[in-house]
Write a structure and sequence with these properties.
It comes from Streptomyces gardneri. With 253 residues, the protein is mainly α. It contains 9 helices and 2 strands; from the N terminus they run E-E-H-H-H-H-H-H-H-H-H. The longest helix has 25 residues. The N terminus and C terminus are likely disordered.
Length: 253
């Protein structure tokens, strides 16, 4: 594959077709699309809880209020716009990146059409808790599938690589700007926003390890052949390693 159609993510070639092979392909594809769908569902539950949204959700809701579009459609438009920002920082999308743009928005609007508004803390608090935990599950699922970062995660890691600033600083700067802009436009900031910020790192880290897909490991002296039984061993995922990985952008506090 030519250099013009690939890039590296944590040292591995990446393109839209990257990773579409191997014995665990079916499982990985299922994880990717189940994870993205559940992410959209969880974001919709946060909306219905009325107690505050995740940072990018605040922006999406604010833009939806101003444009009259659904929040899912706004999410798709913002995701596509963020993806365009990958061009000057020389990031290349994977299958998971492109899928992220569309699947989450569609799942979000579908869930909002089915789940009514909830009034009263007795209903809002459980809905908020379910939304945050489900978001952690969804994040672990789609990142562990290894089909590339979402547009927003890739923006963080790309800017980290380009500027040399830490992931923590880049992520914080982006999300503060996103929340502030969304709030100014009418997006919902509340206790749910704070709880999400505190909980999503530990939750995603736990579920990323839980849903890690086994990888084959070559023997050092085998010229690339698999060690017997290696394909059944799950790869350890360490969010403190390889700052360019999508897991790093999500999991680092």
């Amino acid at each position: 594959m030519s250099q013009s159609t690939t890039t590296t993510l944590g040292g591995s070639p990446l393109s839209i077709a990257s990773g579409l092979h191997g014995r665990h392909l079916t499982r990985r594809l299922v994880q990717l699309y189940v994870g993205l769908t559940l992410y959209g569902v969880s974001s919709a539950l946060l909306v219905r809880s009325g107690l505050g949204l995740e940072p990018w959700g605040v922006l999406h809701q604010g833009l939806a209020e101003k444009t009259g579009l659904t929040i899912g459609v706004v999410s798709i438009i913002v995701g596509a716009a963020v993806l365009l920002l990958w061009i000057p920082i020389r990031q290349k999308p994977g299958l998971g990146t492109v899928s992220n743009v569309f699947v989450i928005g569609v799942a979000m609007d579908g869930t909002l059409a089915l789940v009514p508004d909830v009034h009263g803390l007795a209903g809002q608090v459980p809905l908020l808790a379910i939304g945050i935990v489900l978001n952690g599950v969804a994040t672990g699922l789609y990142i562990a599938a290894r089909f590339g970062p979402g547009p927003r995660d890739g923006l963080m890691t790309g800017l980290h690589r380009l500027t040399g600033r830490s992931i923590r600083l880049v992520r914080t700067a982006i999300e503060v700007a996103v929340v502030a802009t969304g709030f100014a436009l009418g997006g919902s900031v509340g206790v749910g926003t704070v709880l999400y910020a505190l909980a999503i790192g530990p939750l995603a880290q736990y579920f990323l390890r839980w849903f890690a897909v086994p990888e084959a490991s070559p023997r050092p002296d085998s010229g690339g052949s698999e060690t017997p039984g290696a394909a059944t061993r799950p790869t350890s995922v360490d969010p403190q390693v390889a700052p360019e990985t999508p897991g790093q952008a999500i999991l680092r506090p």
